[in-house]
Amino acid sequence: MRKLKNNELGRITVDEFKTTQKTPLIVVLDNIRSLNNIGAVFRTSDAFLIEKIYLCGICATPPNKDIHKTALGATASVDWEYVEDTLTLVKKLKAEKVQILAIEQAENSTKLNAFFPKKDEKYAIVMGNEVKGVQQEVVNAADLCVEIPQLGTKHSLNIAVTTGVVIWDLFVKMKNL
After folding, report:
1. How confident is residue 110, by pLDDT bands cut at 50, 70 and 90?
2. 48 Cβ partners below 8 Å, 6+ apart?
3. 144-147 and 110-111 strand pairing
4. Which residues contact 123 (CB under 8 A, 6 or more apart)?
5. Is the pLDDT of residue 31 over 70?
6. Do 46 and 27 form a contact (C-beta atoms < 8 A)?
7. Which distant-in-sequence residues (6+ apart) come within 8 Å of 119 by Cβ?
8. Between the N and C ends of the chain, which has fewer C-beta atoms within 10 Å?
9. Would you state the pLDDT for residue 2?
10. What is the tens place of the pLDDT at every residue in 142-154?
11. Which residue stretches of the chain are H helix?
12. To the nearest whole number, what is the mean pLDDT of the chain?
């Protein structure tokens, strides 16, 4: 087995990315404090053709050298927008018939492995602050809380890791891979 070189990976250009059909998935970052986490979410969103990222509250925005360090240019490919208030955004998306999934440990949450997106529906996943999680008022407004089952002692994953797990799971289910 031989590792592939960068020029053998079949990467598309930023212009091609912009015109490629996207996964019907939006990422909402609710008060993420780590710029490295924000950058990692951009990079993951690029990998799986995510439609858009919303940066809310205290989230830093591109251009920023610390976001760029982990995004590696994905801030140029993935559409993004800053919105000050996450709850206002969630209400707007719901009015546009987007299904809101708060990714949070909550009473009566649905385990990620038991959640199956409906065909022809658009979803937004709301990822919460590294310490406080998704704001309770946003959890209240969500259509569903989805939780990654965890069996260890911490029951906590980094927000960039959580976003990657959730995006991959939904991408596979939506694309029937």
Report:
1. very high
2. 23, 25, 167, 168, 171
3. parallel
4. 24, 25, 26, 98, 99, 100, 101, 117, 170
5. yes
6. no
7. none
8. N
9. 96
10. 999 999 999 999 9
11. 14-19, 35-47, 65-71, 74-77, 86-95, 136-141, 159-175
12. 96
| Domains identified in the chain and CATH numbers | 18-175 (3.40.1280.10)
CA distance 156 to 40: 18
Query: What is the residue whose two structure tokens read 């969103």?
Result: 45
Does the predicted TM-score (pTM) go above 0.85?
yes
Residue 177 corresponds to which tokens in the numbers above?
A: 């891979």
Residues 6+ apart with CB under 8 A from 152: none
Q: CB neighbours of 121 closer than 8 A, spacing ≥ 6? A: 24, 99
Structure confidence at residue 176 (pLDDT): 74
DSSP class of residue 129 equals B
